[in-house]
Design goal:
The protein is an alpha+beta fold. Strand 4 and strand 5 form a beta hairpin. The model has no long low-confidence stretch (mean pLDDT 96). The protein binds coenzyme A. Coenzyme A (COA) binds next to helix 2, strand 5, helix 5 and helix 6.
Length: 173
């Protein structure tokens, strides 16, 4: 198990193929489908494929990716949080998703804040941004809480709808 970081209440580690059952559950949550999108993951085989070609490929290629987010005291898997390098964005962005049962308790903010600090400290990434769909008010609030601000709408390559762009609060570019 590759541990990435610990916060007061959470542990973030590399995802691996044993996490496939959790990924099936998370990626089929209605809010994940609505706010992030349909990754076409319906069964364990799909999830293993997703893990291999998504997060695990990103660890190899970039040294970061989406990480498993667990409760520190008991190891319960609650969601994913991490950094993404997308072809459609100029900077690395922070992303997160939790199972419904674990929302509203500050876990997303705690995980995302620690992830951004880790990216700055361990990877030297000075400008970490974020994107959300315009109706994702909960995600926008998390991003504001961790020191990003809404910088406007943008249309990513290949997309048919606008996306909200968030940048570091002190960033004027
Ligand atoms: C977005 C998500 C990760 C937030 O998780 P969370 O555990 O509720 O986040 P936190 O508890 O850290 O903070 C949520 C904040 O947003 C606020 N919030 C939540 N839903 C809201 C809404 N619909 N409108 C306005 N604010 C909202 C909460 O009140 C809280 O702010 P506060 O601490 O000032 O009260 C979670 O809802 C989720 O997994 N959604 C599905 C996946 C997703 O959308 N991911 C983000 C993609 S960009």
């Amino acid at each position: 198990m590759t541990l990435i970081l610990e916060t007061e209440r959470l542990t973030l580690r590399h995802l691996n193929l044993d996490d496939a059952p959790f990924i099936v559950k998370l990626l089929n949550d209605p809010d994940f489908l609505h706010f992030i999108g349909d990754r076409g993951v319906r069964n364990l085989e799909d999830a293993e494929h997703y893990l291999q070609n998504g997060p695990m490929a990103s660890y190899r290629q970039h040294g970061f990716g989406l990480f498993m987010t667990q409760l520190r005291h008991c190891g319960t898997a609650i969601g994913i949080c991490g950094l993404l390098r997308r072809l459609t964005l100029p900077d690395v962005d922070v992303g997160f998703a939790l199972l419904p049962a674990f929302r509203g308790q500050g876990y997303a903010s705690e995980a995302a804040a620690a992830t951004v600090c880790w990216g700055r400290r361990e990877l030297g990434l000075q400008r970490i941004i974020a994107i959300t769909s315009p109706d994702n008010l909960g995600s926008a609030r998390v991003l504001e809480k961790i020191g990003l601000r809404f910088a406007g709408l943008t249309r990513l390559d290949g997309e048919s709808v606008d996306t909200c762009l968030f940048v570091p609060d002190l960033d004027t570019s």
